[in-house]
From TrEMBL:
Belongs to the UPF0065 (bug) family. CDD domains: PBP2_Bug_TTT. InterPro entries: BUG, Bug_dom1, TAT_signal. This is Tripartite tricarboxylate transporter substrate binding protein. Pfam families: TctC (PF03401).
Amino acid sequence: MNQSRRRVLQQLGLGLATSPFGGIGLGPAFAQDSAYPTHAVRVVLPFSAGGSSDVAFRVLADGLSKAWGKPVVVDNRPGAGGMIGADAVAKAAPDGYTLLATLTNLVMAPALFGKAPYNAQRDFAPITELATLNLAWVVHKDLPVVDVKSLIEYAKKQGQPLPYGTYAVGGTGHLLMESFGRSNDVPLVHVPYKGEAPLVNDMLGGQVQIGIIGPANAKQHAGRLRTIAVSGVSRSPLLPGVPTFKEQGYAGLERQGWFGLLAPAGTPASIVEKVSADVNKLMVVSAIRARMAEIGYVLVGGTPASFARTVKSDERFWKDIIAASNIHLD
């Protein structure tokens, strides 16, 4: 985390950095505007329960519930590369009681599917970029693959496209793997899952032998799944012994996706700013930071305006990548 961002988070979370999460003494720093929230807040997560994004957001949801004194309910709505859940939020009342916690898929899906039911910039009000995450390229332990070079060699010996799984159609892992295949002349076939948990289960059972998952699951199942590389500009804190693709001589997989919180467009700015400020306060609670690190997320934080710029920039970046790759899922 850069120093300016650290200062912002420390200012937002004044007095919270040493607060114990078990006792969650969030009192004065979370002084409430009586107008919001007055009842439960529903946060739609467009992926199945049990994946890294689900586990990570439930940590924050629990913190918000305790800070606000109102339930924060996580509603898993997987399917269509995240579009089903995102569309539900885009059409929800813009009153702050239905929010969206999602991944970079939000800006990828419209370009991939062509007929997406929402527009990422028009239909949402960005609240906060929560975190970024390395992605782990894993293989079943019985596969004769130990690094990226041997993966390429193995794939080219098969005489047919190599199946690989990801936990979202058109997600960061899917697009990066397709880009990798084209750049290295590796024939691939994508096996999409509606979430990370079912993908991991099938990998453990040998139904699919190559997959892209979060670093926490890769670490947890290290005895049965072998991690051969991670995406991103640097190694995952959870997998310090696993080199990046670039370290192994394969550039082009440095881009990291984000995990962020958004509201329907038209949500009052006062609510957007309040939710953003309160989420940022949670990010400096030591117990929350430790739990998020265990999951493999690198916390980001920041203002609605800064996240809006990220959404705009990434929508353009991935749209260009998708067009150049000629990937269409409609």
